[in-house]
UniProtKB/TrEMBL annotation, chains A, B:
Gene Ontology molecular-function annotations: alpha-1,4-N-acetylgalactosaminyltransferase activity; glucuronyl-galactosyl-proteoglycan 4-alpha-N-acetylglucosaminyltransferase activity; metal ion binding
Family assignment from sequence similarity: Belongs to the glycosyltransferase 47 family.
This protein's name: Exostosin-like 2
Domain named Glycosyl transferase: residues: 65-320
Species: Tinamus guttatus (White-throated tinamou)
Cofactor: Mn(2+)
Catalytic activity: 3-O-(beta-D-GlcA-(1->3)-beta-D-Gal-(1->3)-beta-D-Gal-(1->4)-beta-D-Xyl)-L-seryl-[protein] + UDP-N-acetyl-alpha-D-glucosamine = 3-O-(alpha-D-GlcNAc-(1->4)-beta-D-GlcA-(1->3)-beta-D-Gal-(1->3)-beta-D-Gal-(1->4)-beta-D-Xyl)-L-seryl-[protein] + UDP + H(+)
PANTHER family reported for this sequence: EXOSTOSIN-LIKE 2, SYNTHASE CPS1, PUTATIVE (AFU_ORTHOLOGUE AFUA_7G02500)-RELATED
Mode of membrane association: Single-pass type II membrane protein
GO terms (BP aspect): N-acetylglucosamine metabolic process; UDP-N-acetylgalactosamine metabolic process
Keywords, sorted A to Z: Disulfide bond, Glycoprotein, Glycosyltransferase, Manganese, Membrane, Metal-binding, Signal-anchor, Transferase, Transmembrane, Transmembrane helix
UniProt keyword Plastid present: no
Enzyme class, UniProt record, top EC level: transferase
Length: 330, 330
């Protein structure tokens, strides 16, 4: 019996050892949890794709940007613009989103007139959709994306400066075309531009969006765009409009800041009238602005709130001579 | 003997328990260490005073700023300016650094012409020193400091806008007077302004400092300034100059960014000629600019490196009408 009794503690100690190690393991697990919880997570949570590096970035790709240009029914303008962009500093690659469904891409013409230092990739689309340009293209190797409409020409100098500004505000849309929303007394929002009075008191104006038809933004946002509610895609496809408004909502939600930073362009021009196709952009449609106000209100419902914030900041290049003979109008 | 033997495990278990708890305690200590180490420390380490709230901030003090103005031999201008600042929105308090050693402060005149909504505190100094204005004044209750020279007038609109910009760049000096340093081939630095060619390639100019004689900055930097090497104070006192250059070094070191953000003023004027004292500022001294280049090189030695970074960003208010009849020159 004594013998028996005296064996007991041995087992007890075995159990203690077991309990001891398990407790230590639990503590360590808690540690791991606490650590991950306490890491500077605000940014990570809100903009995973800005911190993650999905593709290994080659050195040039770090101080460079990719031009994404969607084109429809303006191949003559497209070729003019592609020529212009061959000479832009820091341009890593051009991705042309080819919305001319069933039409042959002008690759032969392009190659026959080479050599071209900046590679151009044509992405042939099967459906002519506004949001085709907002795909997370596998060819995209840079963190910086320059998105341009196929009827807009911006001077190389403006692009170089805006890129340097984007590098200082990589979470935001840094571009040349500001817009705003206004809340009416009824609570319904109106979309517009300079013609609308900004709510901010005092002199001056404000903006709450920067259009992506002439802007730099982080490629991570293209990844984020793939994760939006179906209703957002439906809205864009139904209207063939508002993809840029949706992007501003996405960025404002991610950052909690104003979605855009407006860089005052020295020379930006609309080339629409230069096309032989005679095709004029979607924004000439009578319902264009009505649609955009409609989209703002729809997006507020979808995202259950208005994330857009106003900004009154306009950035221009210090000491840059502003030629009087420049047409600054768009 | 059995009894004796059977007691043993008890003690053993006591020791185990002791060891167990001590191990847990050690693990927990390690956790604590790891946590503090892993907290987002870059900012905290570099700018403790921007994160710390040394004084409990009253609600108004959070959306307000304190004007610190040093005055010497220009009491007539001082009173003009104090009148102007009574009407500035968001101004919480005025701290006048009274460098007229032994002279009576104009408090009676000031009070006899009241009431004055914004309190004015006169800080009588015992020595006439340039760096008197860079004390961590106990009367300072706001995070934002507006520092102005006693011969400079900036429009209320410019101040209101610049304050809103500072709230978006609280780590930097947000002001109206940009300057730059240039590295000569010999490695010696030269201090200057627009007349010097900026090293950056391309058109436009750059700046690497924003003078604190007309700027907003975080009150935490006044605390930081008290912790600088003695050699910095000696340099400022020896030259009666360069306190603003030293502040730009301090901020650039703290942030790793450009020390300043330049806001283009719509109306800023120098009132120096309006004083009856006939006193003209230190910067008229023949050696003024030579001293400032000398200071830049000295500070590089003291801080063992050149922390100043260039910026080409100029901020102005979006949509603000720029009156042609405004004198924009300083």
């Amino acid at each position: 019996r004594y013998f028996h009794f005296c064996k007991l503690p041995g087992r007890v100690m075995g159990i203690r050892l077991l309990r001891f190690t398990s407790v230590v393991i639990i503590v360590l697990l808690l540690v791991a949890g606490a650590l991950t919880a306490l890491l500077p997570s605000i940014k990570d949570d809100k903009m995973p794709n800005l911190r993650r590096e999905p593709k290994a970035l080659s050195q040039p790709a770090l101080d460079a940007f990719t031009l994404i240009m969607q084109t429809y029914n303006r191949t003559d303008l497209l070729l003019k613009l592609l020529n212009h962009y061959q000479a832009i500093p820091h341009l890593h690659k051009v991705i042309v989103v080819w919305n001319n469904v069933g039409e042959k891409i002008p690759e032969d013409t392009w190659n026959s007139l080479g050599p071209h230092p900046v590679p151009v990739v044509f992405k042939v689309q099967t459906v002519n959709r506004m949001r085709n340009r907002l795909q997370n293209f596998p060819e995209l190797e840079t963190k910086a994306v320059l998105m341009m409409d196929d009827d807009t020409l911006v001077s190389a100098h403006d692009l170089a400066f805006a890129f340097s500004v984007w590098q200082q505000f990589p979470e935001q849309i840094v571009g040349f075309v500001p817009r705003k929303h206004i809340s009416t007394p009824s609570g319904v929002y109106t979309y517009g531009s300079f013609e609308l009075q900004s709510p901010g008191s005092g002199k001056g104006d404000q903006y709450s969006m920067v259009l992506i038809g002439a802007a730099f933004f982080h490629s991570g946002y293209l990844e984020d765009f793939q994760k939006q509610p179906e209703a957002v895609y439906a809205l864009i496809d139904e209207t063939q409009n508002c993809d840029d408004i949706a992007m501003n909502f996405l960025v404002a939600k991610n950052t909690g800041k104003s979605s855009g930073v407006f860089v005052k362009p020295v020379d930006i021009r609309n080339l629409e009238k230069d096309t032989n196709s005679g095709y004029s952009g979607m924004w000439h449609r009578a319902e264009h602005l009505l649609q955009r106000s409609y989209c703002v209100n729809k997006l507020v419902n979808i995202y259950d709130g208005m994330p857009l914030k106003y900004s009154n900041i306009m950035i221009s290049q210090f000491g840059f001579p502003n030629y009087a003979n420049h047409k600054n109008k768009m």
